[in-house]
Amino acid sequence: MRTAVVLSGGIDSSAIAWWKKPDVAIFINYGQTPADAEESCARNVADRIGAEFSKISIDCKSIGSGSLASRDALSIAPAKEWWPFRNQLLITMAAARAVELGVKKLYFGSVSTDKFHADGRPLFFQQISSLLQSQEGELIVDTPAIELRTEELVKISEIPKDLLLITHSCHISNFPCGVCEGCIKHLAVLRILGIEY
Ligand SMILES: [Zn+2]
Fold first, then answer.
1. Per residue in 69-104, pLDDT tens?
2. Do the beta carbons of residue 49 and residue 17 sit within 8 Å?
3. Mean pLDDT, the chain, whole residue set
4. 17 C-alpha vs ligand 1 centroid, how far in Å?
5. I want to staple 60 with a disulfide (CB 3.0 to 4.6 A). Which of 30, 36, 110, 123 is the partner?
């Protein structure tokens, strides 16, 4: 079965890419502020696993919210970094590319700590997978790490340390700022894993 991963170049999707070795790595520039750094990391990961790199550029910044859109989050946002329906948008865009490429399974890198937003929960992924399977292409969405914390995923995936160290998690910049939610999580995970940086 031909598979693809939605690869942001962050720790979670990079670890899933290493773990599952998909045929295709789909990177999406949807207008997020750190898109250039994310793309560079995603290209590196795709190269290392020998996946075909497929890029989508669709500027959704005008409907973004929160730190990845360089704006204050909407009042209904569950966190500073929250973009309305982002996972739905990303999966829809990736699915359109995936069916073009003959992909049957799409890996998405959500982890257990993403459940603070509704589109990071198992129910959302079951629903969007059912929705896609009911349409042409019969694409399955698989979230193999949905019950794992990032540090557990990293261990299971056996992603090499050097690749882990080049992943990009900063929400506000193409260079790690060290203080945003993305950087704080990145540093905390490396610390838990005992990785020096
Ligand atoms: Zn940052």
1. 999 999 999 988 899 999 999 999 999 999 999 999
2. yes
3. 96
4. 23
5. 30
Alpha carbon of 4 to ligand 1 centroid (Å): 27
Distance CA 45, CA 137 (A): 27
Query: DSSP readout, 23-66?
Result: SEEEEEESS-TTHHHHHHHHHHHHHHHTPEEEEEE---GGG--S
Task: Report the chain's terminal Cα–Cα distance, integer Å.
Answer: 37
What is the tens place of the pLDDT at every residue in 19-36?
Answer: 999 999 999 999 999 999
Distance from the alpha carbon of residue 184 to the mean position of ligand 1, in angstroms: 7
Percent of the chain with pLDDT over 90: 95
Contact in structure between 71 and 32 (CB atoms under 8 Å): no
Residues lining ion ligand 1 (Cβ < 5 A) are 170, 177, 180, 183
Gap from CA of 39 to ligand 1 centroid (Å):
16
> What is the whole-number distance in angstroms between the Cα of residue 175 and the centre of ligand 1?
8
Measured in angstroms, how far is the CA atom of residue 180 from the centroid of ligand 1?
A: 4
User: Ligand 1 center to residue 103 CA distance, Å?
Assistant: 33
pLDDT, tens digit, 9 for 90 and up, residues 96-131: 999 999 999 999 999 999 999 999 999 999 999 999
Rounded Cα distance, 19 and 35, in Å: 23
- Contact of 105 with 95, CB cutoff 8 Å: no
Q: Which fold has domain 3-192?
A: Rossmann fold (3.40.50)
